[in-house]
Design brief:
By secondary structure, the protein is an all-alpha fold. It has 10 helices and no strands. The longest helix is centred in the C-terminal third of the chain and has 30 residues. The chain is elongated and about 60 Å long.
């Protein structure tokens, strides 16, 4: 694996070293997880500066509490879980500034066109329809799809990040994919006559 995407074993080694005051190892964790954490925080908060601040606060808190946290088996999942909690706390604070209470229960993720990679697709109309399909999913299903396909997390890691059980992750993912299949099939049925 490349330096920016270490495997879970390398992350565990860096974490053990970080517990022992190794700032370079903690810096390696920061460097390898920052982009994914930033993208996730940006999806949840919708503000780049706020997402960056939340992540920096998160790393400071984890560094200060590293001894009480102890050894971790799933370093990436731990950081994403902690980030999600940090974001929810941030949203609670922002609620005082008249944010909707519904945002607290389940942050809504919007997929951007840049994230939807359609290989060998020339039809821009099809891309925008797929974007609409993804954004038509309920917010929890979108979050599961994002963590699964854009952050390459396992169902167990997603369950940990979202603080739900494994079966709920499976159900959410299955419902999202089934809805996507149905909508794509309907889309193809409407497009096919125009192709011939």
């Amino acid at each position: 694996m490349n330096e920016l995407q270490p495997d879970s074993e390398q992350l565990k080694i860096w974490w053990v070293d970080a517990i022992q005051q190794d700032t370079l190892a903690f810096g390696s964790i920061h460097k390898s997880l920052y982009a994914g954490l930033f993208n996730y925080a940006l999806k949840l908060l919708g503000d780049e500066a706020l997402a960056n601040d939340v992540i920096q606060d998160l790393f400071i808190k984890i560094w200060n509490k590293r001894h009480s946290i102890g050894e971790l088996q799933k370093v990436k999942a731990y950081f994403f879980t902690a980030l999600r909690r940090q974001v929810l706390n941030q949203l609670r604070d922002l609620k005082l500034r008249q944010l909707k209470i519904s945002t607290l229960a389940s942050p809504d993720i919007d997929f951007s066109q840049e994230e939807i990679l359609i290989q060998r697709e020339q039809d821009n109309a099809l891309k925008s329809r797929i974007l609409l399909l993804l954004n038509s999913l309920p917010s929890r299903q979108k979050e599961v799809i994002y963590l699964s396909f854009f952050e390459d997390m396992s169902n167990a890691q997603i369950a940990e990040v979202l603080d739900i059980n494994y079966q709920s992750v499976m159900n959410l993912k299955q419902r999202a994919l089934q809805k996507m299949r149905t909508l794509v099939l309907l889309l193809l049925l409407t497009i096919l006559p125009f192709l011939f």
